[in-house]
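Q: Start with the shorter request: fold the first protein.
A: Done. Sequence, then structure:
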Amino acid sequence: MNWNKILQGRQNEYPSELLIRFVARNYYDLPFHEQITFLDIGSGAGANAMFLASKGFHVITVDKAITAHAQHQRDINECEFNEKQFDCIVDFNTLCHVKNPPMEKIKRWLKLGGKFFSVAPTSSTWKEHLEGKGYCRCATKDQIEYLYRDFQKLQIGKASYPDRGHTVSSWVVEATK
């Protein structure tokens, strides 16, 4: 899988509408945005991180692709952050490409009451759009519930859009520590 080549395409040119809505719902009305810290896992070209920064939030980025706009260019399993460092961790179709995502670490990195926002393909998604991206977990709802089992509060939704006559379907997960 060549993530550098993928990043040269249209990937991450604009922030996700799902992220914009999530942030607006959970963080816009809070004071002192500069004191709210996000971790963007798999930041890619940086559109989501740039959106968050434009709203005044403190953002730390991780992506292993050398062409990614990331402060930490390494695999998420190799990262170490302080316990209770983040108010929110964001994952857009990145952990689905990690066979053993570091869920214990992610939970440890979140502050009490912190949120983990994740988007990942469903088992019913059109699979051809994933070609060339290596391993990808296209999960059932039961698999998502199991993956996030250690979080106090879990909300799972679904989003989909048409792509070349097919439907791309994703889980939209909001987990709270």
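Q: Next, the second protein, separately.
A: Sequence, then structure:
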Amino acid sequence: MGNARAMEKALRSLPCDSKPVRLVELGAGDGNFLLQVARRLGDGWRGTQATLVDLQNLVTSDTFDGFSELGWDIKVSGIDVFAWCREPVAEGVDLVMANLFIHHFQSQDLQELLRLIKQRCSLLVAVEPRRSPLSLAFSKLVRLIGCNAVTRHDAPASVRAGFFGNELSNLWAGNGDWATEEQRAGLFSHLFVARKREFVEAVRPS
């Protein structure tokens, strides 16, 4: 789907003087998505401190080694995302990111999750399924590449639960201290960026 490329492009558009060094990925799974992104970002992001939040700790030693080679400091937090959002913290988080994660939440829970994220960071970048006839049509063809029954069910279900237009911006809407952007990322993904207003030139995907 090209989600790692879309995430890299969004993060690269951050100016050097406000580049996030304290990063959290929600629903991080085995950490391989963030590792792909980190490899794409290259040496300019050495020193990044990243926390992988997921109920299950699936990160292998090979993945930790991959981050270490890139100069990233990785921590795994095996905790529910809502519990993480409500944890008292000594210092803030620059960036929260998510890949194919927030579409799993129903409307009320999604609104609460976005509200809590807003209190924990200065920037959110999420790449999610894009709800469109094209995406739905292709999701029904995954059987042709040998996907199992679970994937054949989950692929169209994820598209139907995805986002379009400014739906996430409308859910995020606040008192004007945040700027949001939404757009298509590749053929099948939806990119959502929310940043505090003081990030004047922070994230401008093209």
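Q: Describe the second briefly.
A: Residues 136-145, 150-154, 200-206 have pLDDT under 50 and may be disordered. The radius of gyration is 17 Å.
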